[in-house]
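FORM 7B: Structural annotation worksheet

SECTION A. Query
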Amino acid sequence: MKNGSFFTPREHMQSFFNPADMKGAEGLYVYWETDPIVARRVLPPPLEPYSLEHPLAYASVYIVREPGFSPWYMESCIGLYCRYRDIVGVYSLNFQLSGLNAQTAMFTGREHSGLPKKMCERITVERNDSFARAVVEAKGLRIFDVELEVGGSYNDPALAELFKGKGPGYQERGPLLTFQYDAAIQPGTRTTFPKMRLINYDSVTDWRSWEPARINAIEMAPSLDDPWAEVSVVRPLGAAYGSVQSNRVLGLSTLAEFEGEEADNLFSWLMTGFWDRSTIRPGAQRYGQF
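SECTION B. Predicted structure
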C-alpha cells in the first residue's frame, strides 16, 4: 500500500485551494423577518441590521457536489443581512457541516477566511416534485427543520422584487462579512484576543436555477451550543430551491481593524459561532475513570 509523507515539496502545492470554488451546490434558501432586538444583540459592532425595524434573516441548506478542495459535503448556514458604513452584505452567525469530507471544508472556511464553521451529525435536503425539506441536526437536536412548497410564489410578494432576475445564467456578486481574530494565551490568567479584523469575503455565484417557494413550516429546537432558534421567525418571507453552477472567492479584503480591549470584547459575538460551551464551562460530562 502506498504511503504518504509529512513532507510535501513546495512545487506540488501550486493548486492548494486554488481555485477554492464550490460547484454543483443544490438546496434550499430560506428568508424570514426576525426580532429587531435579537438582530441588534447578535450582530457584532460595528455591523447593524440592514433594516432596523424589519431585519432580514436567512438560512441555506445544501449539498456541495463538486468542491475544488475536497470530496462532496453538506453545508448549512444561518445569518442576517447587514450594513457596515456604505457596504451592504450578509453576516453568517454559524455554519454547520456534515458529509464525506466536511472536516476539510470546515477547516478551509475557518483557517483561510475566518468563517464560523462547526461539524454536526446530519444534514439532509429532500426534494420531491413541489415538496422540499431540509433538516440540520447537531448534538442530538434538530436545530433547523423547514418545509417548502416549491413553484409559484413567495410568502411575501416583496421578495420577488428583492430577487428579481435570479435564475439560470444569473451571476450574483456580493460581500460576506466576517471576522478574523488572533488569540493570545496567558497561563494563569485568561485567553485574550488582542487583534480583530473585519473581512469582506468577496464572492461570485453563478446560478443554474432558482425556483421561488413558499415556507409552510419552520422549526428550530433550542440549543446551548448551536442556538439557531435565537434568530426567531417573526414573519416568513419566502424561500427558493436553487442550484449553483459555481461559487468562487474573488478575494478577501480588510475593512476595519481592532486592537486591545475593543478587539477582546468583540469575541463575545464570535464565541458561539466557532466553539461550544464546553470550552468555557467546567463540569462537562466525562467517561472513564476519575
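SECTION C. Observations
The mean pLDDT is 91. The longest helix spans residues 260-274.

SECTION D. Sign-off
Analyst initials: ____
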